[in-house]
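Collaboration report, partner site 2.

Our partner group contributed sequences for two proteins of shared interest, and the home lab folded both. The records are reproduced in the order in which they were received, starting with the first partner submission.
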Amino acid sequence: MSVHLTEAAATHVARMLEQRGRGIGLRVATKKSGCSGFAYVVDYAEAIENDDEVFESYGIRVVVDKASLERLDGTEIDFVKTNALNRGFEFRNPNIKNTCGCGESFSL
């Protein structure tokens, strides 16, 4: 099982952690939400809990709770800029069967 960052995403997370002044990496999870079933939750990782799995990409830790790992296994997280105003994480999740029209949620 694995979840990994592209170099662009790792660079962005490293810069944000440095500006923030604390945190040990990026926490990624899923939650029930939206019209398709699940949505991604992204936050700073402050600690590693007993039920967490930790992966590393380009020197950045990616922390995933075991409950979310099955839905995230094999996911590549990129940081993309679509234009001067829009940028953010893009998830390439091989487990997704459908997404909602707005792209905010997915089903397995």
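Second partner submission, folded after the first:
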Amino acid sequence: MSSFHTDLLHRGISPIALIFAVVATPLVAQGKAWTSKPIGVEGACTAEGSGKTCRVAFFLQPYKGAVLSMGTTPVVAKFAKADKTLAEATVVVRGLAADTAQSVITIQNPKTGSIREVVVSWVEAPPKTPPLVVLDAPQQRHRFLRRVMTGKQPKSAMFISSTQVVLPLLDDNHSEVIDILTGEVKRLTLPANYAKKGGFVESVRVPPLKEFWVSQMMASAIHRFDSATLAYKGSIDLTGSWTKVLAYDAVRNIVYASNWNSSDISVVSVAELKEIKRIKMSGVPRGMAFSSDGNYMLAAIFGGKSDSDGAGRTVKIDLEKQKVVATVIEGGSHRHAVRLKAGNDRFAVSDMARSKVYFIGDYKKSSEISVYKNPNTIAESPDGRFLYVSCRGRNNPKSYLIKGHDMGHLMVVDLATQTVVEDIEAGNQPTGLDVSPDGKYIVLTDFLDHAMRVYERME
């Protein structure tokens, strides 16, 4: 047995603990110790003389300048299917011992100091879709763990447990629930008359019923699912058009649903399971957030007469009167809103047109920061330390449904200083975003890659 394979045994690498090992593998980059968990990959072998020749494929990002090795032996990778900074790497290893079950490929980028280990299990039937390997920057607090392929166009993401995430799919006939640790994907089934229309957009937890609800734009409907069993519980048809964002009001036991085309917000009674009113908006509504006392809603308006005129704004709605009482910020395309944990009724709102995140206090803009192009969803960490921002990147001039010229980004904002402390390149049009209840994991959907990325916070 070679010294390389003996080293593998001493390090205790096993198929079960490839990706989510309790203790990550310490590596050295630019003279400083840092930590990155290995990525598990499966490849196939064919017998050759007394040994075997093996082949493994995986996507690598970034791939340019990457140097691969097995132990002290350089490894040549052939790259194909290049997509901006990402490409499929194919590695052929010859002369392995016939009884070799695993190998380790170390990937480094000398320019950035990034290092990642790929632990390859040699199996009879590797998966048809190769996994993604990302070279984290050495200074990153948030490390890439895995990519899970999804249905078509995952529009949003929401944790419904510590490890399960619901993904509404815009261009598919169902939504999905994914376990971020195992990669298991479960379909949420619906009656055929709804399923065939597609157009699933966002979701919300409804604690009193122990359910989560999913909006369907093309049917102007809300679908109910059991949070524990994922069983379908029924649907609520709305009178608005193109239903998108859902928000639960715990004070009134109400779910509000923003309707894109009809420019209004449906008021849905959880107790009665029906729409009881619509609040007319003078623009295209999207994200919603509530004051701490439940008296007011902050609503993000994406556009005025259309969704592309840049005449959006953020407004304050009196929930007792159910009408707009003030305009907080004018202009732009305001997409998502959250109430922050620190302070008294402080909010954050994303503006896609201006590539900004606004901070609001006392229902006035207190500050703003610039982020990458086309910020979509924003989510705060449970400890209130970070604000995560999914930025789609520049749209293709022909259509946002066609891949653009650059990848989108996941941005990490330190809320104490209101500065961007991490800028992580993601895939094609990152859109959905959420943080696990314990703050350990962040999920991000790559809308045009039909995939979800999982990151782990390292502190």
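Feedback sent to the partner group on the second submission included the following. The chain is about 5% helix and 55% strand. Confidence is low (pLDDT under 50) at residues 1-34.
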